Amino acid sequence: MTPRPPASGYRGRFAPSPTGPLHQGSLIAALASYLDARAHAGQWLVRIEDIDGPRSVPGAAEDILETLAAYGMCSDAPPIWQSNRSAAYQAAFDALLASGRVYPCACTRREINDALLRTDAGHARHTTLAYSGTCRAGLHGRPARAWRLRVPADVDAAAADQPPADPRIRFRDRWQGDRVQDLAREVGDFALKRADGLWAYQLAVVVDDAYSGITDIVRGADLLDSTPRQIYLQRCLGLPTPRYLHVPVLTRADGEKLSKQHGAQALSRAPESRLRALGEAARFLGLAVEAPDQPRFFRDAIAAWRAQVVLRGMPPSNAAT
To answer: How many of the other CB atoms lie within 10 Å of CB of 290?
Structure first.
């Protein structure tokens, strides 16, 4: 069970994947979500996103929780583990299937890419290729590989049963400003269950955020592109849409996001290293915080975040971009 909502009604979360130890880039995301929760007098929860079992590293989740605690950030409720939530994902999937929004797909990634190139619709994306709807009319004897959610050309009307209107997903990000995405053109029907039988990230995160009563999602800007899909899925399932805030991500010298896959160094738990890493993360977020110890750091950092982000309603002017 999750705790009762605080008086402020705010509930945030940090949701790491246990593919390795926390590093400076993940500390920035954790710190931003933690500061926003505390600046709102709200709750901060941790979710272990271990739904992708083959990529999870044994012991990494426990190491992440221990590192967060050493850095002064502890969940206000027992962490949720996605590997224990399959029944909830199945229930959401079944509801979408019963409504006719989901259909099986036999296409491989190469076939999707080839189809896009033939129609001159291909474009570079981080992890997703826009799907042209090849299997919407049936599999024609081919075995199903994945299951996709239909994205009508008019997503707003389809989700709310209203007359045709603007076909784009619009939302205001508290850090990035007004955002818009034509989900049908830029993404297409997206997977809810993958070819390997695992639940897709988009479904799991939407179901889990609703289950935990998350009101505000603070995370890295590398996930900004996923937000319209999640908003559409929330509408399809009749779930509330949280507020979003996407902070800049730490990059390497070549411009690539700093990640465990690219050799990012694990955070040290030594006291002097912790305070230095927290200070660097705060400066990256545009907060001028100098403190002699962790308690003073968090007191000053929460006050600075409240003044600059919560009350002003915009990121600090000296934050990384």
So the answer is: 11
Cβ contacts of 292 within 8 Å, gap of 6 or more: none
For 301-319, b/e burial (b = at least 16 CB within 10 A) is: bbebbbebbeeeeebbeeb
Distance CA 265, CA 72 (A): 20
Q: Which candidate, 73, 24, 21, 23, places its Cα nearest to that of 46?
A: 73
What are the residues facing 244 on neighbouring strands? 173, 217
- Run of H or E residues at 95: helix 86-98
Q: What angle do CA 30, 306, 221 make, to 5 degrees?
A: 40
Angle at 278 between CA 269 and CA 42, to 5 degrees: 105
| Known binding-site residue numbers | 13-17, 49, 105, 107, 131, 135, 201, 219, 260
pLDDT bucket at 164, cuts 50 / 70 / 90: very low
Binding residues for L-glutamate: 13-17, 49, 201, 219
pLDDT tens column, 144-153: 889 999 998 7
Cα–Cα distance for residue pair 12/78, rounded to 1 Å: 14
Task: Provide the annotated binding site for ATP.
Answer: 260
Calpha distance 183→112 (Å, rounded): 17
pLDDT, average across residues 59-87: 97
Binding positions for Zn(2+) are 105, 107, 131, 135
Q: Is 37 helix (H, G, I), strand (E, B) or coil?
A: helix
